[in-house]
Amino acid sequence: MVDRRMLLAAGIAVGVAGPSWAGPTSETKRRAIDAVALPASFKGALAFGRNGRVEHVRCVGMADVEAGRPVSPLTQFKFGSASKWLTSAAVLRLAEQGRLSLDSPITTYLPDFRRDTGDRVLVRHLLSNTSGIPDLLSRQIKAEPSLRTSNASPADIVARFGGGDLAFAPGEGWDYAAINWVIVAALVQRLTGEPLPTVVERQVLRPLAMSRTGFAQADQPPMPQLAAAYSGTTPPVRKMLPVPPFLAASGNAAGTVDDAVRGAHGILHGALLKQASRNRLTTVIWPAEDYALGGRVHPLNGEPWAWETGKVEGYRAHIAHRLQRSETVVIFDTTDLPQSTISGWVEAIARA
What we know:
This protein has about 350 residues and is of the alpha+beta class. The protein has 2 domains: about 5-80 and about 195-350, DD-peptidase/beta-lactamase superfamily (Beta-lactamase); about 85-195, Beta-lactamase (3-Layer(aba) Sandwich). The chain has helices at about 5-10, 25-35, 85-95, 115-120, 125, 135-145, 155-160, 180-190, 195-205, 250, 255-270, 275-280, 340-350; strands spanning about 10-15, 20, 45-50, 55-60, 60-65, 70, 75-80, 215, 230-235, 235-240, 255, 295-300, 305-310, 315-320, 325-335. Strand 9 and strand 10 form a beta hairpin. Helix 3 (about 85-95) crosses helix 9 and helix 7 (about 155-160) packs across helix 8. The two termini are about 30 Å apart. The relative contact order is 0.18.
């Protein structure tokens, strides 16, 4: 069981009804969260927060079935593609500091990149998945499983898989390509001299006090509170193939519900980014996919919501944030549920 003193130290109030954070709780949202009809196999957490503070969290099931460790407010979950949101915020911070421009071609920062394509692809094309660079990496991973455990640097992967002919003119098509984000990681490391996880920590996590968020990958410190993910639990069957460090920018962040709420408020309402950068982060670039920079902006009840979803192995993540005022819905799952199911629950809670 989780030590009560650990929870209190984390600023979490523990009562008979279950763990919740101190502060005024929206009874409507509490009821909506508690009313979600979860499958018996569900293992994860559902939470609602306002102004960066969790007001209600529902923890369900085991974070580690084999060890008998229950899900708690301190449990960490993989963010999957919601990692792109943190990466984009870090890149925008670098832009504000005058260290790069989103409107510069990537060859400005990666001079060894293929010139006839790299001179046409701008940094913002990578962050919006509109670069046109073909995803030769994802195709090869299926044929070369050893890539999953590779310690190759982002630069090595870009040199090997970034040189394909453009599938479409930059900005004139959309492809959810992992190679875009490996190029971002290589660019950031070339520019700063530091690997992407270090830059994200320095530019985003540390300023927002997201102390329980990091990168769940082999070259980073272990995360003992990370939940295990499963394709089935009777008997337990884990679904946790390794994700290589060169994919840090697109899928390896992991953290708690509290950090997810704090991060959403800090990035989209706080002082981390200037207003112009926040506008850029949430301006839809590819309407057919609701895609902005590093994530989607989804209309709900006539209002825009940042709509950060993630899927990696058996992990599912959804961080939805109301842009007109700071309200956040978070759902983390470790049992390989369809993303559409989780999104339906998020919408029901948000509409309540």
